[in-house]
Amino acid sequence: MAARTKARKRALDLLFEAEQRQVNVGELLRQRLAAPVTEAPLSEFTGDLVSGVVEHWTQIDELIATYSQGWTLARMPAVDRSILRLGAYEVLYSTDVPEAVAISEWVGLATELSTDDSPKFVNGLLGRLVEVKPTLA
């Protein structure tokens, strides 16, 4: 697994864990950076992804809710919510990776970790966000 793929997976783990434990994801990130619970500390890329989602949380959730066509955030599987938040951050706000690469990475994680329908849903929603990106202020 490539370093950036691992970093995305660790960011996903943090968002998912925070939701399941009902703790603030920004605070959980700070704790993990200060005192890692794994052999390898969190990468800078992992921290950037989680921090970016936290910074743009409201806008990201509004966009996901707007373009998810019949799926409320609450109705989505928890792992899909986390994947979509991170994927939306990466395609809308990050300039490190081409949008198509970012979408492919998040679809891959959805394939590995979520339902059979999730990869298609993640691909479609992130693709739609890329389409409307130029119209967002």
From TrEMBL:
Residues 6-129 form the NusB/RsmB/TIM44 domain. InterPro entries: NusB-like_sf (IPR035926), NusB_fam (IPR011605), NusB_RsmB_TIM44 (IPR006027). Keywords: RNA-binding, Transcription, Transcription antitermination, Transcription regulation. Gene3D superfamilies: NusB-like (1.10.940.10). It comes from the Bacteria. Pfam families: NusB. Involved in transcription antitermination. Required for transcription of ribosomal RNA (rRNA) genes. Binds specifically to the boxA antiterminator sequence of the ribosomal RNA (rrn) operons. Belongs to the NusB family. This is Transcription antitermination protein NusB. It comes from Ornithinibacter aureus. The lineage of its organism: Bacteria, Bacillati, Actinomycetota, Actinomycetes, Micrococcales.
